[in-house]
Amino acid sequence: IQSVKAPKAAKRLPDNLDVDRMARLLDIPGDGPLVLRDRAILELLYSSGLRLAELTALNIGDVDLMDATVSVMGKGRKERVIPVGKYAKDALLSWLDVRSMLANSGEQAIFVSQRGKRLSPRSVQARVDYWAKRQGIDTRVYPHLFRHSFATHILESSHDLRGVQELLGHANISTTQVYTHLDFQHLAQIYDQTHPRARLKKDDEEH
């Protein structure tokens, strides 16, 4: 009996928001400095799949809006350069236009609080939670959920696991492979819609 090993607990799949709910969350109203800051934060989290610590550690010099990239120092002190999508780039430009209204002189952090200092991870969590409730999102939303959604949506569109691994900054492909389980339902739908035998079966059921 002692030699019998207990079965491994199933690895919990990461949560994610579907594309429609993510779009609703990102469509926050207003144009004041704090709203522009928060919109840039949300767009960048989703556009680039940043970890919360990576986001709050960003300095002005880490963003290249000409090339539409951000440079981050990830786990293990490994630097990676990540593309920034159009919506995130536009949101960053709008925020940077008014950032000086809040930032203290000499402050290098991209995202600052009302006191002009670097925004803390806890503050970002609070703002994410605030906007999720304000936008009527019917599930718990937290910063890392944007990263999960980013990876899931990219994988659904590209099916490039290695590419997603690089974007997320995972040292091992096995860490990224958890998203293939999330993608199975999407792949099953593609199969049903495109495979000749799947289509034939569906057509037979309709006639």
TrEMBL record:
Family matches, as SUPFAM superfamilies: DNA breaking-rejoining enzymes
UniProt entry tagged with the keyword Transport: no
This protein's UniProt keywords: DNA recombination
GO molecular function, one term: DNA binding
TM segment ranges: none
Single Gene Ontology BP annotation: DNA integration
Keyword Transport: no
All copies of domain Tyr recombinase, residue ranges: 12-192
One of the Pfam families matching this protein, by short name: Phage_integrase
Protein name: Tyr recombinase domain-containing protein
